[in-house]
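Hi all, long-time lurker, first post. I run a small reading group and we've been trying to get comfortable going from sequence to structure in the token notation. Rather than ask abstract questions, I figured I'd post a concrete chain and ask someone more experienced to write out its structure so we can walk through it together at our next meeting. Sequence below, copied exactly:
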Amino acid sequence: MELHNLQPAPGSNKKNKRIGRGPGSGYGGTSTRGHKGAKSRSGYSRKIGFEGGQMPLQRRVPKFGFKNINRKEYKAINLDALEALAAAKNLEKIGVEDLRNAGLVAKNCLVKILGNGSLSHKLEVEADAFSKSAEDAITAAGGSVVKK
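-- Answer (accepted) --
Happy to help. Here is the structure in token form:
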């Protein structure tokens, strides 16, 4: 292969349609737009959601629901995850920062401790929220609960 015999792969180069250049081109007259109607005119743009005069979907379907602007989204952490973390890193006190470092929680997440699992030794747990069962289990094991 030399520079003088390089050529594009077959089918990769197409000739562009030269529309509106007379009947001999095959694309003259209506210039591939069909006969009459809004779509054949210059400057035509269809409204978003327009269905040819039929009642559009966003108007056929009823409105429902709302977004509560005061909602707080918590990342749930169970007691068994706390137990495993405390055993692995030999911790007496677990805070949100420890959970972040362990990769259980993202940077700006609020943390809620849930009561699934059990604690075998006492822990001081700091989080944004606790379920009633988690709070009871932590205090029953001799630990303490700190709400941020």
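A couple of things your group might point at:
Residues 79-89 form the longest helix (11 residues).
The chain has a mean pLDDT of 93.
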